[in-house]
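Below is how a single chain appears once it has passed through the pipeline. First comes the sequence as given, then the structure the pipeline wrote out for it. We keep one example in the README because the format questions we get most often are answered faster by looking than by reading.
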Amino acid sequence: MAVKVLLKKSKGADLMRSRTLVVVLAALVVVALSCSVLAAPATSKPGAKPAAAAAKDQKFDQKKVLEEMWKAPDNTVVGSVNGVKVTKGELLKTMWFWNAPSVLQDILNQKMIQQAAVKAGVELTWPELQAKVDESLKRMGMESVEQLLTQFRVTWHRFMSGTKISALAEKVVQKDIKITDAEYAEWIKARHILIRFPQDEKDKAKQEEIAKKKADEIYAKIKAGEDFAKLADEFSEDPGNVDPQTNSKKGGDLGWFSRGRMVQEFEKAAFDLKAGEVSEPVKTFYGFHIIKVEKLGKDASPQEKLELNKMILERKVPGQMGTWFTKLQSEAKMDNKLMPPPVKEPTPAIKPQPAPKPAPAPKSEAKPKAASESKPATPPAEKPAAPPAGEKPETPPPPPPPPAN
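Resulting structure:
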């Protein structure tokens, strides 16, 4: 989806979405194997292509190389630097002592998530996994998995394993999320026409006057019955009105969006409209907008709700994923023998409160005091102030780990 001109401003760019959708790809840390696995001959035959040119002609298949090298003996050379060779055995030994504890933890976490999926009755289909891969590529602006693997120096196995577990975990979390009618009501489907302030005019008042006049003329055409989408294609100055893939215009279509996505003036005008209504020109930072609401979320069809469900879940799942994973870990009986056991914070001891002293018995001969002379009751001790909403109360730092033997 192209970035639309009316989304909230952010530092460094005028035309950016104010919030990021759904789910950031986790950092993948691996030890990269050298692309060269076999020693090149010392001399080349006449007419033979140089090694570099031959390498360019062949597409490097890292998955295949890794699978072949795994079957090779430990004395197989996997790389070299200035004539100093590194064998497969040395690589495996280094990987074991450097990465084995964290890799084992990754494996345990993956198996824990797989167990949770089985318990929840959730399975991941191949089309769902492929969609997740495509989503990752699109989000990161990459055209192929190979490009991603090269740029992030990660293996195909690592990428696919992480993507599969991530998609499986999301599906488990999604299963328990219920979307209410009130949430659908927070969305609308709309079109708009944007008339920008002319940049060749330096006087701001004149800029506004010119843009407003043009917007009013277009609004009059709409009120006279002309087609909104055709007018948007003819007059709108929103770059997002052009599909970057097909280079075709979109009739001002914004698709579905919710509250909090657009600049304030645009949002207020749009959500005040009923389905089919058109707003008068609305001034924002970008210029003047004419907005037409196509449909309200509360009136979405079953098919449209499927589309809305995906967008709503993209927002809700990341916020619940961390809580779900932490709970899963706390309930799991996990034993990583390559890492020290986690240090649990000691439960603070509760000091016993002294029992209240009994009140002294009243003296029979004492005269009762007048109400004006009686002492006021001792006020109860004030409770400590609660932390501000959204903030957790401070907790003492965990004790330092035990010294190494």
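The longest helix spans residues 88-120.

See the next section for the split statistics.
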